[in-house]
Amino acid sequence: MGIIASLQHTFPGGVHPNEGKELSMSEPIRPVEPGEILRFPMSQHIGAPAEPVVQVGDHVKKGQLIGKASGFVSANIYSSVSGDVVEIAPHAVVGGGVVPCVVINRDHQDEAVDHFGEEVDVSRLSKEEILERIKNSGIVGMGGAGFPTHVKLMPKNPEQIDHVIVNGAECEPYLTSDYRLMMERSEDLIEGLRIVLSLFPGAKGVLAIEKNKPEAIARLEYLTQNMPNIQVLPLKTKYPQGAERQIIYVTTGRRIYSRKLPAEAGCIVDNVQTILAIYDGVARNIPSISRVMTITGNGVKNPGNVFVPYGMSHKEVMEQMGGFVEEGVQKMISGGPMMGIALYDLDVPVTKTSSSILATMEDEVSAALTTNCIRCGRCVKACPSHLVPQMMADAAERRDLEMFQRLNGMECYECGSCTYVCPAKRKLTQSFKQARRAVQEEMRKKA
Hints:
Elements: H1 2-7, E1 30-31, E2 37-41, E3 51-52, E4 59-60, E5 65-68, E6 77-78, E7 83-92, E8 98-106, H2 127-136, H3 149-152, E9 163-168, H4 177-184, H5 186-197, E10 204-210, H6 214-223, E11 230-235, H7 244-252, E12 267-271, H8 272-283, E13 290-296, E14 304-309, H9 314-320, E15 331-334, E16 341-342, E17 356-360, H10 364-367, H11 378-382, H12 389-397, H13 401-406, H14 417-421, H15 428-446
Parallel strand pairs: 1-14, 9-10, 9-12, 10-11, 13-17
Antiparallel strand pairs: 2-8, 3-5, 4-7, 5-6, 7-8, 13-14, 15-16, 15-17
């Protein structure tokens, strides 16, 4: 069954939520202009926060280092504008947390650091120089994980890497930024993939794209037709096709679990925007200072995709997109409806992992009446990790963390498929998230 599923480029489980991509996928990417004040959180990634290397009163240029990585698993932070540092203090971020931020008052000159945007002959760079450029550029996983990319590209056994997978599935409903980038920066995407492939001579490149993006598939197939080490792989449209475990399985037939890294299965997986950030950092001398976001939902006046500098507030982005359709928007989400985070305030900065603002005129989750589990088994059938969510939820609600772990609860990656199909409207994913955090906290205490 597993081999057959892999050959069909799909996986057991998963769901088919309403895509909602038609709202924004036909609109070309357009830039938005930041206002006077930009806030740059020093923690925009998994790992140790960056340490500020500027002081209040300093004048900074566009592309200047303002936060230096404080460990191996950490990432540099750069200013996306020129201006003066007016504050270094904690500020709220997406999710409600408070993080130390460098606050810059923009001067509207956009004066850049020396050599910013200069083309580089990548063919003359060694592997070590390429990795150093990726590290110095502050690139992290821009699909949402935020894991420092240079760490991912330095596995223990690089000679065992035989697949470099560009995750172009974009399976999260409503999000279309990766699709627009595959259409508008397809040549740069291929060059970014070739840069990564140069680090792993024994690997082939795979551009994995869901079949609901036929124009992107056709364009990339045309551009790579004479590149024998790069394959465009159309995937069945199903959520969560873009999850790292699933995309490795449908591409190679290999399975990984929470304690196994993709590199141990011979794979490197990077999101479309991450690959483009690698191209910009290595070939164009542009560090990670901006990204493309999808602004969408039935509560948005002008859905589309926008090129946003880091540090700009979500509120400013929404205003430049024309705002909401009317009063009465019920829910705002950073990210998509399946794995996104509810926004209580739009006055929070855009960071490396800010993929979308989704605004809806209804809140189906809060309005849903939760009832008792009827043991229908739909959550089991939908789970792409082959877990038993109904039993995990019972353990989580009793705070029985030992049982939660025995039920392989730590293998859950909170995709939301079980919650989506539950007829009782139980908030399964939320309970798993809380249980997983409690287990991780206990592990840290023991360590």
